Amino acid sequence: MTKAPRAGEVKTRLVPPLTPAEAAELNRCFLRDLARSISRACLESGARGGAVYTPAEAGPTYEGILPSDFLLLPQRGG
Length: 78
Fold this sequence. Notes:
Blueprint: E1 2-3, H1 20-45, E2 50-54, E3 71-74
Parallel strand pairs: 1-2, 2-3
């Protein structure tokens, strides 16, 4: 599960000392690193990586962050 890495909306406890943009970029780095680990595990097991994200319209935000073969699903419900 992930929240869209948008400035001012993620890693807010790191602001300051980071700027909102720097905190969002740090979150992107964390997502890329975790996605690499998931991808390696999937290669070994034959599974498919994926993420459930919020907000629902944020799907395009993950292009270039998560692998193109990841299953992306918007979070639903309460």
